[in-house]
Amino acid sequence: MLKPELLAQIETAAAILRRGGVVAFPTETVYGLGADASNPAAVRRIFNIKGRPADHPLIVHLSDKSQLDLWAREVPDAARLLAEHFWPGPLTLILPRSQHVSDAVTGGQDTIGLRVPSHPVALALLHAMGPAAALAAPSANRYGRISPTTAQHVRDELGDSVDMILDGGACDVGLESTIVSFAGNTVTVLRPGGIPLADLEKVLQQKVAVADSTGSSVRVSGSKLSHYAPVTPLEILTSAALWQRACALEAQGLRVATLEWSVPDAALSQNKVHSEHQHIVRSTMPADPAAYGQMLYATLRQLDAARFDRLLAEAPPSTAAWLAVADRLKRASYRV
Ligand code: TXA
Ligand code: MG
Known about the structure:
The protein contains 13 helices and 14 strands. It is globular and about 60 Å long. Helix 8 (about 195-205) links the parallel strand 9 (about 190) and strand 10. By secondary structure, the chain is α/β, with parallel strands linked by helices. The protein binds threonylcarbamoyladenylate (TXA) and magnesium ion (MG).
């Protein structure tokens, strides 16, 4: 199914990884920055390239769910059930790690994050590396910045610091995987993401807790509040307050861009007020959470590049289906 040129590039990438190199590759969520998970020196290079603190654990990507027990020493029934249903796919399971897993991958923790990605290029890369190969990979951005959802984003941000960038097009999900912990015999979502809460609950036939995203510990997934931040300051406002705020900022001489999901495209383009406000650029985001999530990071990058002074995002609905988008907007809006 993959084109021959791409297959050849995947072979080259696999050879680079086997020699301890670092390769950026597409997954269905975001682009990852991968190294052979069984090579601590290679894994340490990821941290240098990203500028990420060494105690932040990485997710290990496997080619198949049959490898779960090679990396986790205990797999609760709930975890197995979720792996059966959602792998390959945007779900990361946090489990007690096996003996052989290196501290470089887990940041010294006793647990490990595991997932089987569904992107055909990611799977082909894992298979090309060899039997039971695994890729330790965080998102392929600099620490604290927005995750890349195209190969160009990775080139823009990491350029020559990586050995190779595999181009698999734009990511389908666009936001990171859902991270689930089983600590203390409770199923808890540590980071909302590609798999909606309702889907987890349906499969498990139980309520699933969601960890407080204000994060009291650095060790909890993505708990640093300024994670996923665009360069341009971003505010989240209700639709009622948004336009007034935009005008007030414009009156101060600032260039403003809005991201609005409740206003139909047609209404925006027919908006007469709009043309009188040359320094306010309004854009419509999808009113569907999956579609919104798919384009959020790419939109933020585009708006950053256009050098607005302020971004105003309409607050998403406070329903479970919007958890992942709401979480990323909140983190993007944080200013120290
Ligand atoms: O969709 C994704 O998950 C992407 C693609 C590339 O797979 N990866 C990704 O990795 O978002 P990263 O490193 O940017 O974010 C992974 C998060 C981090 O916040 C990390 O703290 C958390 O997962 N994590 C990894 N292992 C963990 C563990 N053992 N316990 C708690 N959190 C863990
Ligand atoms: Mg990341």
